[in-house]
Amino acid sequence: MTPEQTFKITGMDCAGCARTIENGVSKLDGIELCELSFTSETLRVAGSTSAESIVGRVRALGFDIQEPADDENDLAAKPIQAPLNFLQFMWSRRDTRLALLATLLILPGLILHEFLPGLGFENPLLDLASVAALFLAGYPVALSAWRALSINREININVLMTIAAIGALIIGEYTEAGVVMVLFVIGEALEGFTAERARGSIRSLMAVAPAEAIKLVSDGCCSTFKEEIVPIKSLAIGDRILVKPGERVPMDGTVLAGTSAVNQAPITGESKLIEKEIGSGVFASSINGTGSLEIEVTHLAADNTISRLIKMVEEAQEKRAPAQRLVDRFAKYYTPAVVVLAALVAVVPPLLWGSPFFNPTPETTGWLYRALTLLVVACPCALVISTPVSIVSAISNGARNGILIKGGAVVETLSQVQAIAFDKTGTLTKGEPAVVEFKAAGCQALADETCAPCKDLLALACAVEARSEHPLAQAVLETAQTLGVADTYPAAQNVQSLTGRGVTGQVDKNVITIGSHRYFDQAIPHSAYCSDITAVDDQGYTTMLVSQNDHYQGFIAVADAVRETSKDALAQLRLADVNHLVMLTGDNAQTAAQVAAAVGVTEVQANCLPEDKVSAVKNLLTKYGTVAMVGDGINDAPALATASAGIAIGNTAQAMETADVSLMGDSLTALPYLIKLCRAAMNTIRFNIIFSLATKLAFLVLVLLGTGSMWMAILADVGTSILVTLNGMRLLKRQF
Q: Active-site residue numbers?
């Protein structure tokens, strides 16, 4: 396929407008792909057709294309428009300004002819004002209808309204013709206004990233720096910036100096403050606490976390849910079918049963009038808008809570999930070894922080591990620092690795050895303590035995620590009726069972190679139908791809780009929120569709019975469209 071209469309009021543009551009020679997202206003086109031809076709259909920014990748540079009230929104466009004037002209006829017909007030000026209102408000609609017929060869909403208005003029219903057209244009503008508010929720994400930063520039003669305020787009990788207390972090980077507690909620959704020190990574748009931080820039403005997040959220809106595609296909055939049905309603009763075609008396409604009213009732605005506004609201809600959902199809899939498979390491656990138990030979209480022999055991091990490359050394060092014994002894001398068995070193002229249980069985007597060590081994922990001059001193047990939030997250999932929670791990059965008991999974599959995890997910799909897989987004890529939806935990670039969903925080707390959000979105969509169809069916019955009027029908259609839009937008701020 040829490279894609992307355009920003302006002037769309409803999803029907997007479909009209899609159809029109698709008819150009050389077009291979044409997709337009109404919610993001983004048109993606692939093919050999020139940009000029595409722009010309869009403008010929009555819409426009926004000029690209100087740097379209620089999301921080995009302007954030202040939200307009509805009257300002109406006045900002020529078509709707005409509708405002038409509203003033139609009011006398509406009041005297429709609301107060008993007064019997008749004047040709009222009819003249109504006709003038019809032409003012209806000219843009009729023009759009002509373009749809002549360019797209299709019957759209504007065609229906134009036919209805012309028909009303023919039968002398001047006031109704004007009222219907004015209400239709105002209704379309209301849809456009509410859609603009939904788009604004996406653009407001950009507001969390500051546009400027304090750059630290060396003065050239010493190690001091001077401060310069510069635009963030001018910063390069490696630049040094200063973030003062209370300021937002302007760029992704690494802390070079200072300590502070940082609020990362704008990115990860985490409610607690995260401590940052030298070497810690920070995200653009997070909020600094009480300390100043000097940060080295690690990503350009267009490639930092918040920019990637915004870009992916905008792209996600273009991936339509199956429900949305179904509604779009339905609307494609529905509108022409309505015209045929209206023609039959107008012609068949008069021909077969001699019923009146025109309106012979005020008490009797002719079938032509009923057919014209049917055209108005049948406008599919509410039906078409019911799905996309709910999807974009759900995606935006997720983004605000540290959840990146890549499209409406994912929302629909996760609303149906019956089982969730979890990787263990780095998902249910932290993925980092930690000391979970330690006991000295002379200890009276297991892991008692006040026990001097236990503290001494940990201090000796720390002295050796400080010079060791052992994979578990960092766990020992961190625990020793936490207990304040890291500096009890100097770092060991003559440290040597016992390949595959442990490490040894000299501390204050004593030989300290840290080794495996198997090594001690062969080299160092410790049989009196075997029962304690075996009990720890049986829990799935890795035990390191410590000796001093070949005398057993005690053991230290290390394990991949379970995330504090995992148990609560899985409990919340069960409360949400996701009862099949499966852990897939390459660890042995003992370790897997210990973690499973700690977090509360319902099923465990241990000793899994990557291909075994794929097979396990396939089996779950066969058994439960819709299955999500949660992993780190890198090592579990095959299983994530096999599942109905892949969910990555963590905010690495790989995780954001490979999975269907990324939980930006470093825990599973957002997972129950995600499931509840997706279910709420699909429930909202179902309600909107049923409500739209039920309203139309009710008015269809009224029309066929001769009790419905045209202006009441359009008012009901406009009202339904607004209600389903506002109902969908409730998802923007709803919490779960």
A: 423
Considering only CA atoms, which of 342, 333, 380 is closest in space to residue 188? 380
The 3-state secondary structure of 356-409 reads CCCCCCCCCCCHHHHHHHHHHHCCCHHHHHCCHHHHHHHHHHHHHCCEEECCHH
pLDDT of residue 2: 65
Residue type, 641: A
Dist. CA 167–CA 388, nearest whole Å: 33
Exposure letters 356-374 (e unless 16+ CB within 10 A, then b):
ebebeeeeebbbbbbbbbb
* CA–CA dist 393, 456 (Å, integer): 57
In the block, residue with structure tokens 């300390």: 291
Q: What is the pTM of this model?
A: 0.72
Q: Helix, strand, or coil here: 234?
A: helix
Bridge-partner residues for 162, per DSSP?
none
Tokens of 120: 């019997």
Contact 419, 329 (CB under 8 A): no
CB 552 within 8 A of CB 526: yes
Domains within the chain, CATH numbers bracketed = 4-61 (3.30.70.100), 210-303 (2.70.150.10), 402-421+565-679 (3.40.50.1000), 430-562 (3.40.1110.10)
The reported pLDDT for the residue numbered 575 is 92
Strands (E), 160-238: 212-218, 225-231
Counting runs of H as helices and runs of E as strands, what totals does the chain give? 25, 25
- pLDDT score, position 76: 42
Contact 13, 67 (CB under 8 A): no
Distances 442 to 452, 515, 517, 630 between C-alpha atoms, Å = 9, 19, 19, 44
Give the per-residue pLDDT at 324.
61
| pLDDT of the residue at 75 | 41
pLDDT for 72: 43
- Report pLDDT for 687: 92
In sequence order, what E strands does 563-711 have? 580-584, 603-605, 627-631, 645-649, 661-663
Please identify every stretch of the chain with a pLDDT value under 50, giving residue numbers as ranges.
Answer: 69-80, 82-83, 361, 447-448
- Cα 39 off chain centre by: 13
| Residue 541 per-residue DSSP state | P
Q: What share of the chain is helix, strand, coil (3-state, %, to 5)?
A: 50, 20, 30
pLDDT tens digits, residue range 30-73?
Answer: 888 888 877 677 888 888 888 888 998 888 888 888 755 444 44
Amino acid found at 81: Q
* 3-class state of residue 598 by DSSP: helix
